[in-house]
Design a protein that fits this description.
With 158 residues, the protein is mainly α. The chain contains 6 helices and no strands.
């Protein structure tokens, strides 16, 4: 059982991926700030989720949207939704692993393929060895580093 602050920081660390940290600032520098407009909507989406979706799932004793698809439309839409979600997550994980590997490759000079495979093995190992507890505490550490880094940048630039 984890306390609320641990779960909150873990969720923050999960949301902030290498794409958020590396790709979006680079895109803002090269293009413009249009990516920021997506983030401005997130608090409103969270409110809708809290007010509409959480009560809906609790009343229906549902554990996932895929369970709802299965109950409402049958097995085929549930399997299609599940497979689509898995495919999207695999593509997302590949993108994040690639973006994590870029600065490591830049700093070490190692071939990008080796860095990707090495990072993937390392991440898989600590996830399998430590389970969800290792993942949660890794997210907490990541969130703390990012928060402290943001505060430090603000102090140094102010």
């Amino acid at each position: 059982a984890f306390s609320g602050w641990v779960i909150g920081l873990s969720m923050l660390g999960t949301i902030i991926s290498s794409a958020t940290f590396l790709a979006l600032p680079a895109a803002a520098y090269v293009l413009d700030w249009r990516q920021l407009s997506i983030n401005l909507v997130l608090p409103f989406i969270a409110i809708i989720a809290i007010v509409v979706f959480i009560p809906f799932f609790r009343q229906g004793k549902l554990t996932s949207a895929f369970e709802y698809l299965g109950n409402r439309y049958g097995v085929a839409p549930r399997i299609y939704g599940t497979c689509s979600f898995i495919a999207m997550q695999l593509i997302r994980m590949a993108q994040i692993l690639f973006l994590v590997s870029l600065p490591i490759q830049f700093l070490t000079g190692a071939p990008i393929e080796l860095v990707i495979v090495g990072a993937g093995i390392f991440i898989a190992f600590y996830t399998i060895a430590g389970g969800i507890e290792a993942v949660i505490w890794t997210d907490v550490i990541q969130a703390m580093i990012l928060i402290l880094g943001g505060i430090l940048c603000f102090v140094l630039m102010a």
